[in-house]
Amino acid sequence: MMAVLGRARWAVTDGWVVGRANMINWRRNPGLIFYCMMFPIMTVVFGYVFGSAMSVAGGGDYREFLMPGLFGQAMMFGVVTSMLAVTSAVSRGVTDRFRSMPMAQSGVALGRSFADMFSSLIELTILLGCGLLVGWRWHEGPGKALAALGLLLLWRYSLIWVGIYLGLLLPPEAAGAAYVPLLPLTMLANTFVSPEKMPGWLGTIAEWNPLSSTVSACRELFGNPGVTGGSWVAEHAIELAVAWPVLLLVLFVPLSVRRYRTLSR
To answer: Torsions phi, psi of 16, nearest 5?
Structure first.
Protein backbone atom coordinates (compact mmCIF):
# COMPACT_ATOMS: atom_id res chain seq x y z
CA MET A 1 0.00 0.00 0.00
CA MET A 2 2.80 2.43 0.90
CA ALA A 3 4.52 1.68 -2.41
CA VAL A 4 1.33 2.42 -4.35
CA LEU A 5 0.81 5.70 -2.46
CA GLY A 6 4.44 6.62 -3.10
CA ARG A 7 4.10 6.08 -6.85
CA ALA A 8 0.84 8.06 -6.88
CA ARG A 9 2.48 10.97 -5.04
CA TRP A 10 5.42 10.84 -7.45
CA ALA A 11 3.07 10.92 -10.45
CA VAL A 12 1.09 13.89 -9.06
CA THR A 13 4.29 15.81 -8.22
CA ASP A 14 5.74 15.24 -11.70
CA GLY A 15 2.39 16.06 -13.24
CA TRP A 16 2.28 19.37 -11.37
CA VAL A 17 5.76 20.29 -12.62
CA VAL A 18 4.79 19.50 -16.23
CA GLY A 19 1.48 21.29 -15.78
CA ARG A 20 3.22 24.44 -14.55
CA ALA A 21 5.49 24.37 -17.60
CA ASN A 22 2.44 24.08 -19.88
CA MET A 23 0.67 26.92 -18.06
CA ILE A 24 3.71 29.19 -18.42
CA ASN A 25 3.72 28.46 -22.15
CA TRP A 26 -0.02 29.23 -22.30
CA ARG A 27 0.53 32.56 -20.50
CA ARG A 28 3.27 33.56 -22.91
CA ASN A 29 1.05 33.02 -25.96
CA PRO A 30 -1.52 35.86 -26.17
CA GLY A 31 -3.04 34.18 -29.21
CA LEU A 32 -4.25 31.31 -27.04
CA ILE A 33 -5.86 33.75 -24.61
CA PHE A 34 -7.61 35.51 -27.50
CA TYR A 35 -8.82 32.15 -28.82
CA CYS A 36 -10.32 31.27 -25.41
CA MET A 37 -12.18 34.58 -25.35
CA MET A 38 -13.68 34.32 -28.82
CA PHE A 39 -16.26 31.67 -28.02
CA PRO A 40 -17.68 33.52 -24.97
CA ILE A 41 -17.91 36.74 -27.00
CA MET A 42 -19.84 34.90 -29.70
CA THR A 43 -22.33 33.70 -27.09
CA VAL A 44 -23.21 37.31 -26.32
CA VAL A 45 -23.95 37.89 -30.02
CA PHE A 46 -25.92 34.66 -30.28
CA GLY A 47 -28.00 35.45 -27.20
CA TYR A 48 -28.96 38.94 -28.35
CA VAL A 49 -29.59 38.12 -32.01
CA PHE A 50 -31.52 34.86 -31.70
CA GLY A 51 -32.92 35.01 -28.18
CA SER A 52 -36.21 36.66 -29.11
CA ALA A 53 -36.88 34.28 -32.04
CA MET A 54 -36.61 30.96 -30.14
CA SER A 55 -39.03 29.19 -27.85
CA VAL A 56 -38.44 26.77 -24.99
CA ALA A 57 -40.38 23.59 -24.31
CA GLY A 58 -42.47 24.30 -21.22
CA GLY A 59 -41.96 28.06 -21.56
CA GLY A 60 -39.31 30.38 -20.21
CA ASP A 61 -36.67 32.79 -21.43
CA TYR A 62 -34.55 31.33 -24.23
CA ARG A 63 -31.36 33.04 -23.08
CA GLU A 64 -31.61 31.30 -19.72
CA PHE A 65 -32.26 28.03 -21.56
CA LEU A 66 -29.34 28.63 -23.92
CA MET A 67 -26.52 29.44 -21.52
CA PRO A 68 -26.19 26.02 -19.80
CA GLY A 69 -26.09 24.49 -23.28
CA LEU A 70 -23.28 26.83 -24.31
CA PHE A 71 -21.41 26.09 -21.08
CA GLY A 72 -21.51 22.38 -21.88
CA GLN A 73 -20.64 22.92 -25.54
CA ALA A 74 -17.63 25.09 -24.65
CA MET A 75 -16.33 22.39 -22.31
CA MET A 76 -16.76 19.80 -25.06
CA PHE A 77 -14.96 21.90 -27.69
CA GLY A 78 -12.01 21.97 -25.32
CA VAL A 79 -11.20 18.40 -26.37
CA VAL A 80 -9.74 19.84 -29.59
CA THR A 81 -7.54 22.24 -27.59
CA SER A 82 -6.11 19.27 -25.70
CA MET A 83 -5.58 17.31 -28.91
CA LEU A 84 -3.74 20.19 -30.58
CA ALA A 85 -1.53 20.78 -27.55
CA VAL A 86 -0.55 17.11 -27.34
CA THR A 87 0.10 16.67 -31.08
CA SER A 88 2.17 19.87 -31.07
CA ALA A 89 4.27 18.64 -28.13
CA VAL A 90 4.82 15.27 -29.82
CA SER A 91 5.75 16.75 -33.21
CA ARG A 92 8.19 19.27 -31.66
CA GLY A 93 9.93 16.58 -29.62
CA VAL A 94 8.86 18.02 -26.26
CA THR A 95 7.19 14.77 -25.25
CA ASP A 96 10.32 12.77 -26.07
CA ARG A 97 12.42 15.09 -23.90
CA PHE A 98 10.06 14.54 -20.98
CA ARG A 99 10.18 10.78 -21.56
CA SER A 100 13.98 10.83 -21.32
CA MET A 101 13.80 12.30 -17.81
CA PRO A 102 13.55 10.25 -14.58
CA MET A 103 9.88 10.94 -13.96
CA ALA A 104 6.62 9.02 -13.59
CA GLN A 105 5.30 7.60 -16.86
CA SER A 106 1.91 9.20 -16.25
CA GLY A 107 3.39 12.60 -15.27
CA VAL A 108 3.33 14.19 -18.73
CA ALA A 109 -0.30 13.27 -19.42
CA LEU A 110 -1.31 14.31 -15.91
CA GLY A 111 0.48 17.63 -16.33
CA ARG A 112 -1.34 18.24 -19.58
CA SER A 113 -4.66 17.65 -17.80
CA PHE A 114 -3.72 20.13 -15.03
CA ALA A 115 -2.81 22.85 -17.54
CA ASP A 116 -5.96 22.32 -19.60
CA MET A 117 -8.12 22.50 -16.48
CA PHE A 118 -6.50 25.84 -15.65
CA SER A 119 -7.40 27.25 -19.07
CA SER A 120 -10.89 25.72 -18.79
CA LEU A 121 -11.48 27.55 -15.51
CA ILE A 122 -10.57 30.84 -17.18
CA GLU A 123 -12.78 30.11 -20.17
CA LEU A 124 -15.74 29.10 -18.00
CA THR A 125 -15.34 32.24 -15.87
CA ILE A 126 -15.43 34.44 -18.98
CA LEU A 127 -18.41 32.51 -20.27
CA LEU A 128 -20.29 32.98 -16.99
CA GLY A 129 -19.67 36.73 -17.23
CA CYS A 130 -20.98 36.79 -20.78
CA GLY A 131 -24.07 34.87 -19.69
CA LEU A 132 -24.79 37.45 -17.01
CA LEU A 133 -24.46 40.19 -19.64
CA VAL A 134 -27.17 38.63 -21.84
CA GLY A 135 -29.59 38.19 -18.95
CA TRP A 136 -28.83 34.68 -17.72
CA ARG A 137 -29.19 34.04 -13.97
CA TRP A 138 -29.21 31.08 -11.59
CA HIS A 139 -32.19 30.78 -9.27
CA GLU A 140 -31.50 27.87 -6.91
CA GLY A 141 -28.88 29.38 -4.64
CA PRO A 142 -25.07 29.36 -4.66
CA GLY A 143 -24.76 25.75 -3.47
CA LYS A 144 -26.56 24.26 -6.45
CA ALA A 145 -24.87 26.71 -8.81
CA LEU A 146 -21.46 25.52 -7.60
CA ALA A 147 -22.62 21.92 -8.04
CA ALA A 148 -23.55 22.70 -11.65
CA LEU A 149 -20.14 24.27 -12.27
CA GLY A 150 -18.55 21.19 -10.73
CA LEU A 151 -20.42 18.97 -13.21
CA LEU A 152 -19.25 21.14 -16.10
CA LEU A 153 -15.63 20.89 -14.96
CA LEU A 154 -15.96 17.13 -14.42
CA TRP A 155 -17.28 16.85 -17.99
CA ARG A 156 -14.36 18.92 -19.23
CA TYR A 157 -11.78 16.93 -17.28
CA SER A 158 -13.03 13.64 -18.73
CA LEU A 159 -12.79 15.09 -22.24
CA ILE A 160 -9.24 16.29 -21.59
CA TRP A 161 -8.21 12.65 -21.35
CA VAL A 162 -10.09 11.85 -24.55
CA GLY A 163 -8.13 14.67 -26.20
CA ILE A 164 -4.82 13.46 -24.73
CA TYR A 165 -5.36 9.95 -26.07
CA LEU A 166 -6.42 11.10 -29.53
CA GLY A 167 -3.57 13.62 -29.60
CA LEU A 168 -1.08 10.81 -28.93
CA LEU A 169 -2.77 8.65 -31.56
CA LEU A 170 -3.42 11.05 -34.45
CA PRO A 171 -1.11 13.25 -36.58
CA PRO A 172 -1.33 17.07 -36.15
CA GLU A 173 -3.34 17.60 -39.36
CA ALA A 174 -6.02 15.17 -38.19
CA ALA A 175 -6.23 16.88 -34.79
CA GLY A 176 -6.79 20.23 -36.49
CA ALA A 177 -9.78 18.80 -38.38
CA ALA A 178 -11.42 17.43 -35.22
CA TYR A 179 -13.95 20.28 -35.17
CA VAL A 180 -15.66 18.78 -38.24
CA PRO A 181 -17.11 15.69 -36.45
CA LEU A 182 -17.30 17.47 -33.08
CA LEU A 183 -19.71 20.21 -34.16
CA PRO A 184 -22.54 17.83 -35.15
CA LEU A 185 -22.09 15.97 -31.84
CA THR A 186 -22.64 19.19 -29.90
CA MET A 187 -25.58 20.20 -32.08
CA LEU A 188 -27.28 16.79 -31.82
CA ALA A 189 -28.03 17.38 -28.16
CA ASN A 190 -30.25 19.63 -26.07
CA THR A 191 -27.73 22.47 -26.41
CA PHE A 192 -29.87 24.82 -28.51
CA VAL A 193 -33.23 23.03 -28.81
CA SER A 194 -35.17 20.76 -26.47
CA PRO A 195 -35.32 17.12 -27.68
CA GLU A 196 -39.12 17.36 -27.36
CA LYS A 197 -39.12 19.72 -30.34
CA MET A 198 -37.16 17.28 -32.52
CA PRO A 199 -38.54 14.33 -34.53
CA GLY A 200 -39.02 11.31 -32.25
CA TRP A 201 -35.98 9.28 -33.28
CA LEU A 202 -33.74 12.34 -33.38
CA GLY A 203 -34.93 13.47 -29.97
CA THR A 204 -34.08 10.07 -28.51
CA ILE A 205 -30.52 10.26 -29.89
CA ALA A 206 -30.16 13.82 -28.55
CA GLU A 207 -31.38 12.76 -25.09
CA TRP A 208 -28.81 9.97 -24.87
CA ASN A 209 -25.96 12.23 -25.94
CA PRO A 210 -23.72 12.49 -22.83
CA LEU A 211 -23.53 16.26 -23.37
CA SER A 212 -27.31 16.45 -22.93
CA SER A 213 -27.10 14.89 -19.48
CA THR A 214 -24.61 17.51 -18.28
CA VAL A 215 -26.63 20.35 -19.82
CA SER A 216 -29.94 19.06 -18.36
CA ALA A 217 -28.36 18.64 -14.93
CA CYS A 218 -27.00 22.21 -15.07
CA ARG A 219 -30.39 23.62 -16.09
CA GLU A 220 -31.96 21.80 -13.16
CA LEU A 221 -29.35 22.97 -10.66
CA PHE A 222 -29.32 26.54 -11.99
CA GLY A 223 -33.13 26.65 -12.01
CA ASN A 224 -33.18 27.53 -15.71
CA PRO A 225 -36.04 26.61 -18.09
CA GLY A 226 -36.05 23.55 -20.32
CA VAL A 227 -36.08 20.87 -17.60
CA THR A 228 -38.65 18.33 -18.77
CA GLY A 229 -39.48 14.83 -17.53
CA GLY A 230 -41.17 11.86 -19.12
CA SER A 231 -38.13 9.74 -19.94
CA TRP A 232 -35.67 7.83 -17.79
CA VAL A 233 -32.75 9.87 -19.14
CA ALA A 234 -34.43 13.19 -18.31
CA GLU A 235 -35.35 12.09 -14.80
CA HIS A 236 -31.80 10.93 -14.00
CA ALA A 237 -29.86 13.77 -15.62
CA ILE A 238 -27.72 14.56 -12.56
CA GLU A 239 -26.75 10.92 -12.02
CA LEU A 240 -25.86 10.53 -15.70
CA ALA A 241 -23.93 13.82 -15.66
CA VAL A 242 -21.63 12.10 -13.15
CA ALA A 243 -21.69 8.61 -14.67
CA TRP A 244 -20.75 9.57 -18.26
CA PRO A 245 -17.56 11.50 -17.33
CA VAL A 246 -16.52 8.80 -14.83
CA LEU A 247 -16.92 6.19 -17.57
CA LEU A 248 -14.78 8.27 -19.95
CA LEU A 249 -12.09 8.67 -17.28
CA VAL A 250 -12.06 4.94 -16.55
CA LEU A 251 -11.59 4.23 -20.26
CA PHE A 252 -9.23 6.97 -21.42
CA VAL A 253 -6.87 7.57 -18.48
CA PRO A 254 -5.28 4.08 -18.75
CA LEU A 255 -5.44 4.23 -22.56
CA SER A 256 -3.60 7.57 -22.56
CA VAL A 257 -0.91 6.39 -20.13
CA ARG A 258 -0.40 3.17 -22.10
CA ARG A 259 -0.19 5.08 -25.37
CA TYR A 260 2.37 7.46 -23.87
CA ARG A 261 4.51 4.54 -22.71
CA THR A 262 4.49 2.91 -26.16
CA LEU A 263 4.90 6.13 -28.15
CA SER A 264 7.33 5.82 -31.09
CA ARG A 265 7.89 2.13 -30.46
So the answer is: -65, -40
User: What is the CA 63 to chain-centroid distance, rounded?
Assistant: 21
225-265 residue pLDDT tens? 887 767 888 889 999 999 999 999 999 999 988 888 777 64
The total of structural domains in the chain comes to 1
Residue 34 structural domain: 15-261
pLDDT given for residue 221 in this prediction: 95
Other residues' Cβ atoms within 10 Å of the Cβ of residue 259: 17
Q: What was the pLDDT predicted at 110?
A: 78
Residue 141 lies in a domain: yes
Q: How far is CA 120 from the centre of its chain?
A: 8
DSSP-derived letter for residue 144 is H
2 belongs to a structural domain: no
Q: Note whether residue 51 is domain-resident.
A: yes
Residues 105, 108, 114, CA angle at the centre, nearest 5°? 130
Within a domain: residue 43? yes
Which residues of the chain, if any, have pLDDT below 50? Answer: 2-6, 10, 14, 265
Question: Distance between CA atoms of 20 and 39, rounded to whole angstroms?
Answer: 25
Q: Are 191 and 73 in contact (CB under 8 A)?
A: yes
Q: What is the pLDDT of residue 186?
A: 84
DSSP annotation of 79 reads: H
Which residue blocks in the chain are alpha helix, DSSP H?
A: 2-27, 30-50, 62-91, 94-99, 107-133, 141-169, 172-176, 179-187, 200-208, 210-222, 232-235, 237-261
